[in-house]
Amino acid sequence: MADDSAGGFPDDYPTIDPTSFDVVICGTGLPESILAAACAAAGKTVLHVDPNPFYGSLYSSVPLPSLPSFLSPDSSAPVPSSSTATSSSAPSAASSHSAIHLERRCLYSEVETSGTVPESSGRFTVDLVGPRVLYCADEAVDLLLRSGGNNHVEFKSVEGGSLLYWDGALYPVPDSKGAIFMDGTLKPGMKTLLFSFFKLVESHIAASSSGDKEGEGEASGKICEEDLDLPFVEFLKKQRLPPKISAVMLYAIAMADYDQDAADSCEKLLTTRDGIKSIALYFSSIKRFANAEGAFIYPMYGHGELPQAFCRFAAVKGALYVLRMPVTALLLDQEKKRYIGTRLASGQDILCQQLILDPSFKIPSLEIPSDVSDSNSPRKVARGICITSSSIKQGKSSVLVVFPPKSLQEQQAAAVRVLQLSSNVAVCPPGMFMAYLSTPCTDAFLGKQCINKAIEVLFSAQGSDDSEGHLETTSENIENAKPTLIWNCVYVQEITQGPSGTVLSCPMPDENLDYRNILESTQKLFADAYPNEEFLPRNSAPKYADDDSDSAE
After folding, report:
1. Angle of CA points 368, 371, 377, to nearest 5°
2. 272-286 and 188-209 are packed helices; what angle lies between their axes, rounded to 10 degrees?
């Protein structure tokens, strides 16, 4: 967790020795930390610096009182200019390189808060990447096991499962055969259809996993190629699943973001092949850890613990770490063909073969002027953070809520997802709850409007009329009374990807609920830099006597 003492920089910076490394990484976000671990495991010399006094960068977990300083326009820590770093300084006679000044972009905008911050605000820890979970069976967990990071991070399951908002009510998500059997809201005919669909998916997964290439269709257990190439929403219609159950499959299990019924305008149309792949991950996650309920887990103390775990591994492998050390400039060779290092705030120049920056840096392009290198229109994600006095689902500490597209308003083009957490993961005091919301958007106003509408549906404002403080539910396990909203913050985050080349820019926190896309991009960056090296080999983890890979904790 980030310390609130995110204050100024030291008057005297340490001198770094040696002054040349294979890799210099600026920023300790999750992608940068994973890359540091992978490079160190490959035997590269690594210098890993961060301007902050804590690990995590854009993936930090911060105390609630520190949140405004991260989200405000001048949220990024001031980069002190060294006496020799100018916007484009010419090389001296004794130097073989010139310095190109670095700037950082502000990623957050449209910040609005309401309500009263609790007196115990210092006991609330806020994820900058929320809502976010890990599948029990996804690559992020495998990387933690391979690096030994699981010995430094404890997880709790999202034990309340998932709820779907449909026609003004919250429904439990029937995500397994047991859940289907226990769901009193499903009619017998619907249960039969769902059992048949789950059996079809499981047969396809089993046949695909066995490597059986003999035929397709019912005899082989595999879904035919023609169906796999269909939009998933069309395949679900072929299985005679009604709209509500299709919404469960699309948005609560396959985790599609955009309106799959609007094929012509859908930002990303999910194919049956990709939908089945996501369902397979979901199903395998439910069964992976004996002490984990459901498919999802969440790290104790927040997602900022994950970068620290990989940094510990990198340090064991020989990486050098220096916090409170801003980078002020990139070093360019005399012929200006490639970047060859960095200039630190101390004025010291560090040379390297490979330079990796966190995505908040504006990287000057060598081919085009720096003022147009970031001209591509960025994607956006609207986010919300809420503090409430009770749980959305009675008796449950954590729960995931999914609002499918158009369930809140006609203009809602993407799903809104909500993750509620409590003191059992040490992010808030006992008796209080935190909820994170997000939705991808192209228009900041509409994105925030959807977040605010979801907040209005789930929570009641302090002092509101009791007659408006109830949400229709369809299970006696779900609390009928709306939790009271104590405080909330809604804002918009840009999602941009910097140019590749002699400087690699890591992926930003994205709009997804999990880390799959971020990890895929991170692995690609490593492959681009070191195509002949294995990414975090399985035998690279330090040995711990109490290692237990079958436990979620």
Report:
1. 95
2. 90
Please give the Cα distance from 29 to 232 (Å, whole number). 34
**In 242-365, beta strands by DSSP E:** 296-299, 320-322, 327-333, 339-344, 349-357, 361-362
* d(C-alpha 45, C-alpha 41), whole Å: 10
Model pLDDT, residue 93: 41
d(CA 330, CA 355): 9
The pTM is what? 0.89
Structure confidence at residue 247 (pLDDT): 96
Please say whether the beta carbons of 354 and 81 come within 8 A. no
Cα separation of 50 and 28, whole Å? 6
468-525 pLDDT, tens digit per residue, is: 445 655 554 444 689 999 999 999 999 987 665 678 999 999 999 999 999 999 999 9
Dig out the tokens for 443 from the structure.
């228009």
Please tell me the distance from the alpha carbon of residue 223 to that of residue 204, in angstroms, as a whole number. Answer: 6
The pLDDT assigned to 212 comes to 60
Residue 282: enclosing H or E segment and its boundaries?
helix 272-286
* Contact residues for 393 (Cβ-Cβ < 8 A; gap 6+): 160, 163, 399, 420, 477, 478, 479
**What distance in Å separates the CA atoms of residue 525 and residue 438, rounded to the nearest whole number?**
27
